[in-house]
Amino acid sequence: VQLSAKNFQLQSENQKLLAQVASLQDSLRTKEALTGMSANNPQNDLQVVLVNTIGFDSVQDSILLDRGSDDGILENMPVIDSEKVLYGKVVAVYKNYSKAMLISDESSIVNVKIQDSDIAKPPIYGAVKGSGNRSCYLDLVPNESEINSGQVLVTSALEGVFPKDLLVGKITAPSKNDQRPFQTAKIEPFFNMQKDGKLFIITNYKSE
Are 140 and 182 in contact, with CB atoms under 8 Å apart? Predict the structure, then answer.
């Protein structure tokens, strides 16, 4: 009986220690996310709210976040991570949580600019469209424009929803067809659903 009681006490203490470790790990991830955001937003141009991912819908390519209307969250607010990688935008807001559509959702369209090492060249614009299952592709790039694998895509802010220069993805396979007015490309989006779940909602962006 004494041995059984002792085992029960040890199990209880072990569970408490595990809970403390989990809490410390979460605090560390929060601190790292805040530090990263501060480093990537030195001028504090973006006002953000730290949120946790509490659910993922693979069918609709959407995520649930633990902040809602009580925290000042509104529809169409952009969702990013600490490295200013674009995840998507808020599409539904409830009292204590909200739903965000990822840029890979089939109804998502994000206007982008293709970064080039030669700043003297005129900018090339296109649109990243979601194709579901956490994948996207580049569309609406004029056929006369030259695009290459490895080029990085950033938001252009032309649609008035996302601030400019948020990281979107990189080109992996351009595709040109002379029978079409625009060329397309496969891209690798930068957002990562396997990360620690610490994201940020931008609360102060409004298109001019």
Answer: yes
pLDDT digits (tens, 9 = 90+) for 149-198: 999 999 999 888 999 999 999 999 999 887 888 999 999 999 998 887 89
SS3 (DSSP) at 63: strand
200, 71 contact by CB (below 8 A): no
173 bridge partner residues: 186
Instruction: Spell out the residues 6+ positions from residue 7 whose beta carbon is closer than 8 angstroms to its own.
Output: none
Using the CB atoms, write b or e for 76-103: b if 16+ within 10 Å. Answer: ebbbbbbebbbbbbbbebeeebbbbbbb
Tokens (6 digits) for 32: 């790292």
In residues, how long is the chain?
208
Q: Is residue 29 left, alpha or beta, with left meaning phi > 0 and alpha meaning psi from -120 to 50?
A: alpha
